[in-house]
Amino acid sequence: MKTNDMETTTLRSAALGKMSRRTWLGTAAAWVASGWAPTWAQNGRAADPVRLALIEGLSGPMGNTGEAVFRNLVWAAERVNARGGIDLGGGVRRPLQIARYDSKGQAQEALSALQAAVDDGVTLVAQGNSSAVAASLIEAINRHNARTPQRALLYLNYAAVDPVLTNERCSFWHFRFDAHVDMRMAALMSVLKDDATVRDVYLIGQDYSFGQAVLREARRQLALQRPDVRIVGEELHPMARIKDFLPYITKIKASGAQAVITGNWGNDLTLLVRAAREGGFEGKFYTFYGNALGAPAAIGDAGVGKVLAVADWFPNAPGEASRAFYQAFRQRFPNPADDYIHMRMQLMIEALAQAIERAARAPSASAGVLPHAQDIAYALERADVTLAGQRLRMRADDHQAQQPLMVAVMERQGAQGVPFDVEGSGYGFRVVKRIEAEAAEMAHTCRMARP
């Protein structure tokens, strides 16, 4: 954007209310990325948008994953705005706006970003990349809401999957839209249990709450599903600090393992699979995020038929609705480097819009005013949305989303079931198993305190 264009946009936004310069710059970036400008009007002035604060690592070693989230939320907001924005009653419709707050992937920075969002008057918050950060945010939001209930915050979690967040540490103010570790591991194990080529496995993960949960659940489910499989190595490594994973791959090869189970994500996954290729490891990878940014290109031909991933959805999911959905995303973001779409994030925004509009229709609601976070939360507990054939519903008891899961294997683009590749790499993922929501659902231990 040219300087004079930015100045024009700044002047146009004068009626959007008081916000910090840091938030404004992030907001302007979101408008530029989405091609959207505030054109709604109310009483002769630009209508205040409904703002969702994205608190995420947008810089540093995991910054690429944060930017992928931002693109997804921008695209989802565009869809809401294209149909007229969010209906707050009384003939008032407001646009949905994504405001960026960079946490640098650190819990303390995330708490500072949360305070900045509060200072800017935002009451809706989204975060996901890091369960450790998520736990800190839940605790901080619980305190804030107890202290200032009139300005309560609502937290939408799209990727922090430590099971405790909707079990022992569940909160009325927190909603998770991704399947948690135990659900994802069960999906992977439903494929591994039939893989007769795997006799020995190596467990490796990032040394924080999520990575520890992955290894713990891998041990438990292997004992249940494949008691004949030996765990020949287990290792946790510092998160986002390892530059060379070749020593780890050397140990994995020496162990004789035919497969690796890992929850690694971001640069830690990319570097791990790249080292596997360079180190000549020929076993399989059962992963949570093997289809993630950079991973398929990093592992190349060595991953064909060997790298498996679990997700709520893949671009090569069967069905014309799914195909059209993915093609629309690629048309919006044609740069291959931007090619990483999260269906659950699209469904999250649909659920949020549904909940706000449902709360706004309540008899006690004030027409044209964004409902209180508590009212939105009660409406969000009943969320049930469908997009491109994928349905998500929220379980009210623990605020854990329920949706189908899929396991897919890496193949060359053009192979049967792989019309689309990832990031222009020439490699895509073929869905080998779909687990319906009812089968993926798990019991919980949440004892939620409600306001």
Automatic annotation (TrEMBL):
Keywords, ordered alphabetically: Signal
Pfam (any one): Peripla_BP_6
Gene3D superfamilies: 3.40.50.2300
Keyword Cell cycle (UniProt): no
Domain Leucine-binding protein: 49-414
SUPFAM superfamilies from the UniProt entry: Periplasmic binding protein-like I (SSF53822)
Superkingdom of the source species: Bacteria
PANTHER family linked: LEUCINE-SPECIFIC-BINDING PROTEIN, PERIPLASMIC BINDING PROTEIN OF ABC TRANSPORTER FOR NATURAL AMINO ACIDS
Family named by the database record: Belongs to the leucine-binding protein family.
Protein name: Leucine-, isoleucine-, valine-, threonine-, and alanine-binding protein
Gene name in the database record: braC_2
